[in-house]
Protein 1
Amino acid sequence: DGRTVDARTIAAAARAAAAVVDPPQDLHADAQYRRALVATLVERALRAAAQRRSA
């Protein structure tokens, strides 16, 4: 729709995704770590999509 995606918008989306996920906790990783991982992966994916769109 013509709007640009900036770093602040991407970070907000990553935080929102981490806030709604309810990851399992086990001996490999606790829920807090997995939420942080979700935020990181969403941020990376959105940055990559924004780069592809602007290319």
Protein 2
Amino acid sequence: MLTAWKGLLHKDFRMGRTWLLTGIFIVVAVNLFIAFRVPSMEKRFGWSLLPVTLHLFYWPVYLYSSLQVEAKQLHQWLHNTQSALRLVTSKLLNGLLAMLISLLISAAYPSYLFYILIREGHILVRDGTSAFSAEWVRFGFTALGSFLWISLSLSLLVLLLWSAYRRLNPYTGKWTWLVTAVGGISLLLLFGKWVHTDLYLWLTQWGFIPYTLPGEANVTPYIGEYLFDFLLNTGLFFLSCRLIEKVEV
């Protein structure tokens, strides 16, 4: 069983290798363009953050691309000896690995520019605190965790829509895209309304976590919010796997 699982991970990695290398090439090309075409160091730093920010969508796009490749041989993929849960988990893990590699490379140039700007006094840190103090390091890891969590949530939404599309396709035919799009937009609108209800606030705003951002800004995270997001993402994952198991090929 373990050998089959490793083989599945390796297969999905090889499948996404071209996407990973292409993404790295684009990131390097963009940073080289910024380095040679943008004269101001401050502007260079600002523009170099764009590829980093766009990595928020890297994981969902990677997952969708991998699923679309499998769609061309759906019968073979779904009749794998591995369960749908393992098939999807393998793609999510490979997407995470590819994203982290690309994100690390993408963040190297702006990190270098940030260091230069700090050293030359172009960026001042409040109260003379070092930019690499424990406060800023904690903020960096917190921001990275939130970044990855949002990207995972988007990936699971893509997974749900893809699974729903494949499940509905035998029944709705050429209208499947429209039905899936309308359903997805409706769910997002309903969720947007739900998070502003008193019931949502009552369910999530408990377990206050005291946390202060570097600078003057404060945030108010709650354990209830993290728990709700975790349960929601878990539900999306298992619902998607169930839909994939029910796909007719």
Protein 3
Amino acid sequence: MARYESSSTTLGALQRGLGRGVFGDPSAPVAVLGDLSAAVAVFRDDYRWDGVDERAVYLARLVRDFDLPVPSLIPFEQNLGALSVLGRCGVLPAVDALHEYVCSGPRWVEVLETLASDWPVEMWDDLRPVALARLTPGVKLWGEPWKYWGLAAPLIRPVRRPLADRTTEELLTLLSDDAVRELNRRGPHPALLDVADSLSRMPSRLSSLYRSLELLGARAVPFARSWVAQPDHPLRGGAVDVLARHGDESDLSIIVAEWDRLDDLPDFRCGYDTLAAGVARIGARAAVPRLRKLWYSPHSYERAAYLRALNVLDPVVAGPFLAEGLWDCESSVRLLAVEHATASQLGRLASLRDDPMETASVRAAAASRISSV
């Protein structure tokens, strides 16, 4: 687990992918990063708390905007994304480094598949002879570039559905794991709630039952309230999610208790997003300090959920965070920030609209927002 500096420092903000890592004043139109050594240091370790956390565009912009050295492919997963973005935007040292890695690096297949998913064909098609020479005979590969080159393995057969011909009533009688999955494919079935309690005692069925609760939505609330009252109930986690999504003010104490439980888990930063949406939907303004604290979590994947909830509960408090979000590492945060941008932020909106490193959805949203503010 990476060690995180305080978010009040430049390095700590960069580690978390926060906008303040690049801009001292979130409303400023120009970069003011003062500690270039911190910017260089952030490439030496993978500071994402989880692999789903985005850093590629954020780090690529650091290299471009502050004229930093193009990083190496160590750490691999983090810097591969940044190098791919740089290469796609024509930074030749990044292009050369990635091409060279495909020719001689140990994880060349991952690099090549990343380039094929991110770059236009003409930027990677010339690597075909290298790939053919390096491929291990018998290895099955899917997707690009293998499909484009005619080297992809046959498509995997569709998921087997051994009970597809059974009626819903028959499936409820069988109640095997396959039966629960088949029921989920057909949509919500309230009758399943009557037997979910007994089914939950079989661990192999928990994931299917969690999906069932999600499909049943508000109809599962009475059952969920019963399950959360039992601390050791196998479906308690799914029940809390049901109450966060569909419960009312009477369920707020359960949501807060789950929040506290997550806070007490060392180095655990996942699962707050559903709770944040729940307190916002219920209108629990007392949760604002909790949401502000979560903004600084290195698990940036959930950050948009925190910002969305904060904006619902207290738009004034959310204002500075929305401004900072225009430079965030997560595209979902940038998108939300763009949607709420003001006329004073037209300069940043124009930068996002015109930045080839930016995602298509954020660029389109920025263009739309410029025309409406």
Protein 4
Amino acid sequence: MKTPIKLFLCLLVIAAFSFTTPTTTSKKETVVVIDLSHGGDDFGVQVDGISEKDVVQQIGYKIAEANSDKGIKIHFTRTHDTEMSLSERVNFINSLKPDVVLSLHINSSENPEHSGVEIYVAETSQKSKELADKLSLKFIATDNFNEAKVKKANFYLLKNTKVPAMTVELGFLSNERNRNDLVNTEQQTEIAKTILEFVSDL
């Protein structure tokens, strides 16, 4: 009788382990602030009736629409065509303490040949530089941008935010190809997806 009892006990132990639910560590929520530059009476760069404030807002909407990752929480400095001072933007950002800030802008140059993405970070923020390098690689990997330069600048928002931050110039309105891409709905969606891919890797 002892052998069947031992066998029965062994089966009980095996069954108990079989139905044990493994514990998993949930991923920390990534908090991001997308700063949609300009707004209201501040149009930003304007070329051929196209304004910077409108393009970045359109791309902002695309980012919000494309974000299906529940682990990514995105806050926008503005959600409508309203003007917001730099100090108000900085205060908003610092109150949230996000993991990263992306301030979206559109560039312009007297030389119509200038094109591509430019990413600016504060000179004193090594973490911002590291993240900007990663975002640059994401843009270069797309079909639309063959270069995405990382540069340093003392912009007010970059200097005064207490978290990693970068100003992302998404192309040149003064360049015909960039301009056509920036107002194209499909290309705006691709830009949004590129930004979200970067965020998902944080």
